[in-house]
Design a protein that fits this description.
- The complex is a heterodimer of chains A (91) and B (156).
- Chain A has 91 residues and is an alpha+beta fold.
- In chain A, 16% of the residues lie in helices and 24% in strands.
- Chain A has a single domain, classed as Beta-grasp domain (Ubiquitin-like (UB roll), Roll), CATH 3.10.20.30.
- Chain A has two helices and six strands.
- Chain B is of the alpha/beta class and 156 residues long.
- Chain B has three helices and ten strands.
- Chain B has a nine-stranded mixed sheet with strand order 8-7-6-5-2-3-1-9-10.
- In chain B, strand 6 and strand 7 form a beta hairpin.
- The termini of chain B are close together.
- Classes of the chains: A alpha+beta (91), B alpha/beta (156).
- Chains A and B meet through strand 3, strand 5 and strand 6 of A and strand 2, strand 4, helix 2 and strand 5 of B.
Chain lengths: 91, 156
């Protein structure tokens, strides 16, 4: 399946905006991603291994935090994951 | 240096006037090259912080994903964001900094005083991640036409 990488993290994927990973679940896909591009791990996860609060990951159009099986959700080759850091602020 | 076309520059400032006294927000699409970020298109976004839109903004991730898809289709990248500060200086705040996570991207802030856009400043988020990120003042170059195909340069 494909994983779309946001602009700030492409420096850790050799400039690629989309990478192809293996596996049959979201967990597999993210594991494959961080195995192939280990520098990404610190930018996606806290030291305790939890997804950083400002990092959103979507399976197609769904936030994986709200999927019934969350990261254990099964995936197919045609599915797409998108990593998208949050945008917010104010005075 | 951040380079963007006059029409886009005017449009993002007008957006802040339209949403006054609430904050506006949007996304800058373009390319990054040796000179910095070049904006080829701006995309307006909705502010989901309806609870305190006068001093906060948030772009829904679903909307960001749609914009990122749009950028891919155009052969562009997300190179930055913009928002307004109603009756507040065009300077990043602690909230802006805490919530900034797109290293390498430009953050334009426009001060809107009594409904009229005044100063627009840009800040480049530098560093490698959360531990060492910082905002750096960034010169804005407004060009006639689209950035990258400018015939005439005007310093903002």
């Amino acid at each position: 399946m494909k994983i779309h990488i946001p602009t700030p993290l492409r420096q850790y994927t050799k400039g690629q905006q989309t990478v192809t990973v293996g596996g049959t679940s979201i967990t597999d896909a993210l594991q494959d991603l961080t195995t192939n591009y280990p520098e990404l791990r610190n930018h996606l996860y806290t030291g305790e291994g939890k997804l950083r609060s400002f990092v959103n990951i979507y399976l197609n159009d769904d936030d994986i935090r709200y999927l019934p099986e969350k990261e254990a959700t099964k995936t197919g080759d045609d599915d797409e994951l998108t990593i998208i850091p949050s945008i917010a602020g104010g005075n | 240096m951040l380079k963007l076309g006059q029409a886009d520059y005017d449009a993002l400032r007008a957006h802040g006037e339209e949403t006054y006294p609430h904050e506006c927000c949007g996304v800058l699409l373009g390319k990054n090259d040796a000179d910095g970020n070049q904006v080829h298109k701006i995309v307006r976004a909705g502010n989901t912080r309806t609870d305190r839109a006068h001093d906060r903004y948030n772009i829904a991730p679903e909307e960001l994903i749609r914009v990122q898809r749009q950028a891919r289709g155009l052969g562009l990248d997300i190179v930055g964001f913009y928002h307004s500060h109603p009756d507040h200086p065009a300077q990043w705040s602690k909230t802006d900094f805490d919530e900034a996570h797109w290293v390498g991207c430009s953050y334009i802030i426009t001060s809107v005083e009594h409904g009229k856009a005044t100063l627009s400043n840009s800040f480049l988020l530098t560093g490698t991640g959360e531990e060492d990120k910082k905002f750096v003042d960034e010169q804005v170059q407004v060009v006639a036409g689209e950035a990258g195909s400018a015939k005439e340069n005007v310093q903002a």
